[in-house]
Amino acid sequence: MPETTYIDAITQAMSEEMARDERVFLIGEDVGAYGGAFKTSYGLLDKFGAERVIDTPISEIAIIGAASGAALMGMRPIAEMQFLDFITCGYDILVNFAAMNSYLFGRACPIVVRGPAGGGTHGGPYHSINPEAMFLNRPGLKIVAPGTAYDAKGLLKAAIRDDNPVLYIEHKYLYRRIKENLPDDDYIVPIGKANVRRRGKDLTIITWGAMLYVADDAADELAKDNVSTEIIDLRSIVPFDEDAILESVAKTNRVIILHEAPLTGGAGAEFAARIAEKAFDYLDAPIKRIAALDVPTPYSPPLEAAALPDKTRVLQAARELLAY
Amino acid sequence: MSELSNEQLLDIDYYLRLTRTLEERLVALFRQAKVIGGLYRSLGQEGESVAAAYALDYKQGDVVQPLIRNIGAILVAGAKPADIIKQYMAKGDGPTRGRELNIHFGHPARDGFIGQISMLGDMIPVMAGIALAGRMQKRKLVTLAFIGDGGSSTGAFWEGMNFASVQKLPMVVIVENNGYAYSTPTSKQTAARTLADKSYAFGCAGVTIDGNDVLGVYDTTKRAIENARSGGGVTLIEVMTFRMKGHAEHDNQAYVPKELIAEWAEKDAVVRFENLLVERGVATREQLDAIQQRVKKEVDDATDEADRSPMPDPAHAGKGLFIEDGYWG
Prior knowledge:
The complex is a heterodimer. By secondary structure, chain A is an alpha/beta fold. In chain A, α7 (149-161) links the parallel β6 and β7. In chain A, α8 (211-224) packs across α12 (311-323). Chain A has helices at 6-20, 44-48, 60-72, 91-97, 101-105, 133-136, 149-161, 211-224, 242-252, 267-278, 301-307, 311-323; strands at 4-5, 24-28, 53-55, 76-80, 112-117, 142-144, 166-171, 179-180, 195-198, 203-207, 229-233, 236-238, 255-262, 288-292. Chain A is globular and about 60 Å long. Chain B has a single domain, classed as Rossmann fold (3-Layer(aba) Sandwich), CATH 3.40.50.970. Chain B contains eleven helices and seven strands. In chain B, the strands form two sheets. Chain B has a five-stranded parallel beta sheet, with helices on both faces. In chain B, α5 runs parallel beside α6 (155-166).
């Protein structure tokens, strides 16, 4: 069996879920004949027809709104944002309508809103967003951000089967850069469970998405100095696996939170606060956050590289913590 | 006189009276400080609200989406007066258990209606999605959405109308032109000649009608619904009516010329409709009074029920964010 890329894992998850459950359909811009701007839905139109692979006008409100209405009627729509940056155009209907159905009305609204996120591809300020923080403070929406092909498939299946709205953040830098052998069987990755990607005892890096690979590189480098790094791949931002975070911090006593979104008000601030509240006694050093600069993601490669977190910054933080 | 039987005409009168009487009761409860939030009157607009909703076929799975002043529409769809009063009184056993206000409630698949959210226009794409689901499920249901002169300025309205029209979805949209969006007159809302003219941009059918002519609204809406049901796509119906009260009870509508209010008072839809019923021998004044007596008793009973209802348990404030919490059963 050939290895499966991250993007193919997403396509497979959609295709298998659409084959398994006729309530599942895909709606978005250029998802049909063109197969999606990144070819994420390539082949789905041929397999499932135009009624279940719906090309829409350029209308993020209509995409998310129509998906939500259909979901209330028992369907299981997947709403694609061509780039997740454009989710801001549909932000209102997602947080005010879709996400409030359960708490206010007891209505199940099982939609998945998914699309390419993240930088590193020179997409510039309107094609590089990491949007999790702007949804973190709006209760009612689950948020997942897979960083491996295995998780991309398993989390998307879990999201489609979930009875709540789920924001599925796929990292476009990873689309064709990573691949792995996936199981043949139908598996899901449960929402809300972190993965201990690498076990270690000296230092914890909590991260997700494409930053996994920055963490890996840093951990490899630290290993040369006999520093053993634990990497927690959070995978789910809402709900997040607090136990996994606290257990790791209790073990290593030093923690870096690494994310690609800007620092201030980023999701890392919430995790840091939680560690400070619940694991303060275990800490041997301050909590470190490594994140993007507090700027829009710039276009030109040297600027983008300087704005986004990298191995050098992680290593510097790690060494400060170890020397504390 | 329309295709409606005498029985149906009296049924419509019942809903008109129920709407007006229930709202008058809500005003009384508001003045007793039993209504917790704002109170939004539909006085002057009951006719189109009831008539349009009456044209749906709820047994087919049709769904109506009211705005805040379409209390008449959800009564037609089957909402219970006691539930509406409980919502206004923020009671714990109302449809939203004290989490949302007034007529913001309902489930499209279960109740035949779904309340708006406060972000105007958002329900147009949602209603398009309900219609889309109906079509995918091979059902013949039609959705009926209300929007106002103000709401038809929103981006969500435009996106939803455009998408629904492209997809030829079975959806009818009533644009209530009631003169004012809060304090803003329609002339400051749009430079379009009529709100129905917006249909040209979508490529859907559009028409402007007298919103205070109950039977005219029924007939036009009915035709649009049947056209939608048979695959003819979206119709936008602009109904000309008037908001006889302020935006909410706190608003004395000083910005509305007195003559305008007086002029529209002469056109009251309920009075017009009942005069017609009597003139054409459908009902006697005594029969209409009997309907009013029945309505008053129902509203009295509903008020008693809502009054006896408990406020929500504060321990529940954190429950039910996600479906699997099991809070809603």
